[in-house]
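Supplementary Text 2. Reproducibility record for the structural model of the 70-residue chain.

All settings were left at their defaults, and a single model was retained for analysis rather than an ensemble. We include the record here because the model underlies the residue-level annotations in Supplementary Table 4.
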Amino acid sequence: EGSLTVIVGAHLDDGLHTIVARGPGSSVDCAALLTSIAPACGGRGGGRTERAEGRMPPGTDLVAISALPP
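Retained model, structure tokens:
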């Protein structure tokens, strides 16, 4: 909503499935954000400017990766 950007994740057997999404008022590039933080924890991902998806290794801490600088 608005200018918000969110990072959400779900721990599944094969890792942390992650989605980065933004509201219409945000200028954050979700794909660029995800592809910049995913390699730091051994993950991967991609997508579009408005929404991106990825998977991180099992045991990855969502709070820790969301605090990484882009």
